[in-house]
Amino acid sequence: PAPGGRPPATKPGIPGVDRIVAVASGKGGVGKSTTAVNLALGLSLLGLRVGILDADVYGPSIPRLLGLKDKPKTSGGRTMLPLEAYGLKAMSMGLMVDEETPMIWRGPMVMSALTQMMREVEWGELDVLVVDMPPGTGDAQLTMAQQVPLAGAVIVSTPQDLALIDARKGLAMFQKVDVRVLGIVENMSYFVAPDTGNRYDIFGHGGAKAEAERLGVPFLGEVPIEMAIRESSDSGRPVVATDPEGPHSAAYRDIAAKV
Ligand code: ADP
């Protein structure tokens, strides 16, 4: 039974979509969207048909990360066609408004936008739909977790205690609504100076792994801080798409293989 003794909400799936995987974080700025995009591309390299839904309606970053600028077209009726980039199908509220326009929305509007992006987009046949969740554990997250049959959630955290405390809350939220936690990714795990090869644990290292072990959920891998990851994301050419065999893509490909 659902928490509070209510009957479980019915969760109709998205027709044609096999698995929906949420990528979440306890707080913003930890690299959730970067991870979501590169994970989606990693899944695509495994031969899967993959879509990415930007559910971070207050701070949509998928259009920028994938270099998408066009407005989505309607398919004649009510439904919209997703855009395509690097073999991924993509939909984001950021495609409907320009980047500088703030989303000043109350909860119910956010919910209806999310529902629309799931149910009124012609996703077609997909093996995996990766959902870039908004950061935190508010209304939008809870509703997504309750309304959509999620195959599981991947939690992204940096190694600092503060980020981990928030990640733990995110994890607890998914567990509360019976969504399987597929595991934790430690982003910005360490830095290797390209000139000297010296390694620096800028935010500490290993915190997420320890946390995963403590909580009994899988640890999916660590992604170092890399200039190439930052530059490629910010220029709309994600590393896993542009340099799939390169060293910066390896961590994401490993994570994709475990998801
Ligand atoms: P979030 O979705 O958690 O808010 P983003 O994915 O937008 O975070 O990342 C925040 C910033 O950090 C972006 O400029 C992004 O390019 C950068 N970033 C994310 N992960 C890495 C990484 N592993 N190495 C270097 N820069 C990163």
TrEMBL record:
Does the record bear Zinc in its keywords? no
- Which spans are transmembrane here? none
Give one GO molecular function term: 4 iron, 4 sulfur cluster binding
Q: What does this protein do?
A: Binds and transfers iron-sulfur (Fe-S) clusters to target apoproteins. Can hydrolyze ATP.
Q: Which family does it belong to?
A: In the N-terminal section; belongs to the MIP18 family. Belongs to the Mrp/NBP35 ATP-binding proteins family.
Q: How does it assemble?
A: Homodimer.
Tell me the protein's name.
Iron-sulfur cluster carrier protein
Query: What is the covered span of the full protein?
Result: 107 to 365 of 384
